[in-house]
């Protein structure tokens, strides 16, 4: 959903577990935790806090 990135919860090269929260997205005046759908290493982060994002934007890439 379109919204605004409020906070990044991971750093580049960090290891994340499947289901772990990776960022907070504000949409329709509600804050939503965006979770990792796979476990792995954060390969790249394409957004920063305050960025507006659209529905199909890639926010964070996780390498298995």
Describe the overall structure.
The chain has a single domain, classed as OB fold (Dihydrolipoamide Acetyltransferase, E2P) (Beta Barrel). The protein contains no helices and 7 strands. The model has no long low-confidence stretch (mean pLDDT 96). The radius of gyration is 11 Å and the shape is globular. The chain is mostly beta strands and 64 residues long. The strands form 2 sheets. Strands 4-3-1-6 form a 4-stranded antiparallel beta sheet, with no helix packed on it.
Which descriptors would you attach to this protein?
64 residues; mainly beta; three-stranded antiparallel β-sheet
Mean pLDDT: 96
Strand content: over 45%
Low-confidence stretches: none
Helix and strand element order = EEEEEEE
Q: Domain count, please report it.
A: 1
CATH architecture descriptor: Beta Barrel
Radius of gyration equals: 11 Å
CATH class: Mainly Beta
Strand order of the largest sheet: 4-3-1-6
> What is the H level of CATH, i.e. the homologous superfamily?
RNA polymerase II/Efflux pump adaptor protein, barrel-sandwich hybrid domain
CATH topology call = OB fold (Dihydrolipoamide Acetyltransferase, E2P)
Fraction of residues in H or I helices: under 10%
The largest sheet is: 4 strands, antiparallel
Report the principal-axis shape.
globular
> What is the CA-CA span between the terminal residues?
25 Å
What's this entry about, in short?
This protein has 64 residues and is mainly beta.
